[in-house]
Amino acid sequence: MPRRRLTLDPRYNTPADTRILQMTDFGALVRQRRKELGMTQRDLSRLTGYSMRLIGEVERGKEHVAADKLLSILDILNMTMTVHVEGK
């Protein structure tokens, strides 16, 4: 399975290079950042236009969430994501 790397926005006190191997790790970072900003899932839902159910699924690491939705959530949280796929 290829490795995924999540690079968080350097303006914040978060590791600049966090390797993500599972979606549950990704979800935990999203939850952590949301809480750092003092936001509830309801707040994030309202800002993104996505349901609270979807926000919860992302934070729990559901694997079948569309990339555009993940990127929208990251944008609201001032996070960026870089994906590196390593060869076989």
Task: Break the fold down into its secondary structure elements and pairings.
Blueprint: E1 4-6, E2 18-20, H1 23-36, H2 41-48, H3 52-60, H4 67-76
Antiparallel strand pairs: 1-2
Helix pairs in contact: 1-3, 2-3
Give an overview in words:
It is globular and about 40 Å long. Helix 2 crosses helix 3 (52-60). By secondary structure, it is mainly alpha-helical. The protein has 4 helices and 2 strands, in the order E-E-H-H-H-H. The N and C termini lie close together (9 Å). It has a two-stranded antiparallel ribbon with strand order 1-2.
How are the strands ordered across the major sheet?
1-2
Helix residue percentage: 40-55%
Task: Report how far the terminal alpha carbons are from each other.
Answer: 9 Å
Low-confidence stretches: 1-6
What is the residue-averaged pLDDT?
A: 80
Give a quick precis of the structure.
The protein is mainly α and 88 residues long.
List keywords for this structure.
single chain; 88 residues; mainly alpha; two-stranded antiparallel ribbon; 47% helix; globular
